[in-house]
């Protein structure tokens, strides 16, 4: 209760100080507007003013200050002042007795030991991930084989109930038909399936689709975080993406590497593009209490060997230059960076040493990059098929308002028995603010 009262007192004092500043500004403005050398008549008038008139001036200042307090700009300044107070020390800890401060130091030392135990826990988790990585890899390899049509799944592999399949309805209809009509019904279903495919069995064989086309591209477009990175010129390239793997580092520097596997294509000669992330499991010695678990501290990409004229990460722009002396104008072509998903493999470099050396733009880019890399490792790769179907995509649910009485209807004045235009008077005129 004492701390709360002090915080409220600080806010109130700051508010009074701000109001006093506004009033002082008003008084200063009034003083500056008065003539520096008043005439003798003006001096006599001032000397003749009684105390009541002085009180009136104070009242005018109060009115002006109150008017300023209604100004949105002044209110915004007051709000900024109040926001700067939030989180500021209340002075409570500093006012505690010496023996209490000593006990707080002991608690902080215990907290530091707790944080180091927490970091050891996350190191053990990393060791468990290394242990189970081969089991995951085996299943991910089977997934890749189905995606690229290296293996066709068996009936046993496809034994998974799905509410969206129409086959269950057709099977139910077949069970209800008499035995004498079972063969005829099967032929009918086969014939209808052939027609839906666009023709006879020969045409169906020609149009047979291998694997699951654009699997990873569809995932990237379904996930908002990734769809913002994918440009229209990136999509034809990403159709050649066959798999994404994560490799956990066993030795220092600890971390993980994302491997993007591409089939041979016309855009670049590489078959694997990599993105490496380094992580820190120990708390920062300079600020141990900020520790919230392992964090990515550095990342590095790879060089993409683009074929001539296929590099989508750069674009050519033409710029006119004028000679200062001769006044002649020439057009030069300049190469600049273009928006592309493949800039993901060319992140900004993290300077060695303190993170404070980075500018705000670089720090923001790296923060977003770390988040994307972590999301691909923890969510996209393990649950790829669910992001492909959209089942793993988080959507905001909106509930209907219980007080909603229905859609708005057009109002008919003539049909309203209580409508009386004379009783309502004239409408007020709009005043421009």
From TrEMBL:
GO CC term, one of those recorded: nucleus
Keyword line: Nucleus
GO process terms (BP): nucleosome assembly
Amino acid composition bias (Basic and acidic residues), ranges on this chain: 184-205
Name listed for the protein in its UniProt record: Nucleosome assembly protein 1-like 1 isoform X1
Originating organism: Biomphalaria glabrata (Bloodfluke planorb)
Biased composition range(s): Acidic residues: 42-57, 154-171, 393-419
PANTHER family: TESTIS-SPECIFIC Y-ENCODED PROTEIN
Pfam family, one: NAP
Phylogenetic classification of the source organism: Eukaryota, Metazoa, Spiralia, Lophotrochozoa, Mollusca
InterPro entries membership: NAP-like_sf, NAP_family
Family: Belongs to the nucleosome assembly protein (NAP) family.
Biased composition (Polar residues): 30-40
Region listing for Disordered, in residue ranges: 30-60, 154-205, 392-433
Location(s), subcellular: Nucleus
């Amino acid at each position: 209760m004492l701390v709360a009262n002090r915080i409220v007192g600080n806010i109130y004092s700051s508010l009074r100080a701000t109001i006093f500043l506004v009033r002082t500004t008003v008084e200063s403005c009034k003083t500056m507007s008065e003539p520096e050398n008043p005439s003798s008549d003006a001096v006599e008038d001032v000397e003749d003013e009684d105390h009541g008139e002085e009180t009136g001036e104070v009242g005018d200042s109060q009115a002006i200050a109150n008017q300023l307090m209604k100004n949105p700009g002044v209110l915004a300044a007051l709000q900024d002042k109040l926001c700067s107070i939030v989180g500021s020390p209340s002075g409570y800890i500093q006012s505690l007795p010496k023996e209490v401060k000593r006990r707080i130091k002991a608690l902080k030392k215990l907290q530091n030991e707790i944080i180091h135990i927490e970091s050891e826990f996350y190191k053990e988790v990393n060791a468990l991930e290394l242990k189970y990585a081969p089991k995951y890899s085996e299943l991910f390899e089977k997934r890749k084989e189905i995606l690229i049509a290296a293996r066709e799944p068996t009936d046993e592999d496809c034994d998974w109930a799905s509410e969206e399949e129409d086959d269950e309805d057709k099977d139910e209809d077949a069970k209800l038909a008499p035995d004498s009509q079972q063969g005829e019904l099967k032929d009918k279903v086969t014939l209808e399936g052939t027609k839906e495919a666009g023709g006879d069995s020969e045409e169906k064989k020609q149009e047979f689709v291998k694997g699951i086309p654009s699997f990873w591209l569809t995932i990237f477009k379904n996930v908002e975080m990734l769809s913002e990175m994918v440009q229209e010129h990136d999509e034809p390239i990403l159709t050649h993406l066959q798999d994404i793997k994560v490799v956990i580092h066993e030795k220092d520097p600890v971390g993980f590497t994302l491997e993007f596997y591409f089939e041979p294509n016309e855009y670049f000669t590489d078959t694997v593009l990599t993105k490496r992330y380094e992580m820190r499991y120990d708390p920062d010695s300079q600020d141990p209490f900020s520790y919230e678990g392992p964090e990515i501290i550095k990342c590095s990409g790879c060089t993409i060997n683009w074929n001539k004229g296929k590099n989508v990460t750069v674009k050519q722009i033409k710029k006119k230059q004028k000679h200062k002396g001769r006044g002649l104008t020439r057009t030069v072509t300049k190469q600049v960076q273009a928006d592309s998903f493949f800039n993901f493999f060319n992140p900004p470099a993290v300077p060695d040493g303190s993170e404070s050396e980075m500018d705000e733009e670089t720090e923001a880019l790296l923060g977003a990059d770390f988040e994307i890399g972590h999301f691909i490792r923890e969510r996209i790769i393990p649950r790829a098929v669910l992001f492909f179907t959209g089942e793993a995509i988080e959507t905001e649910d909106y509930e209907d308002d219980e007080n909603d009485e229905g859609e708005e209807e057009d109002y008919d004045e003539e049909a309203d028995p209580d409508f009386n235009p004379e009783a309502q008077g004239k409408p007020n005129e709009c005043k421009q603010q």
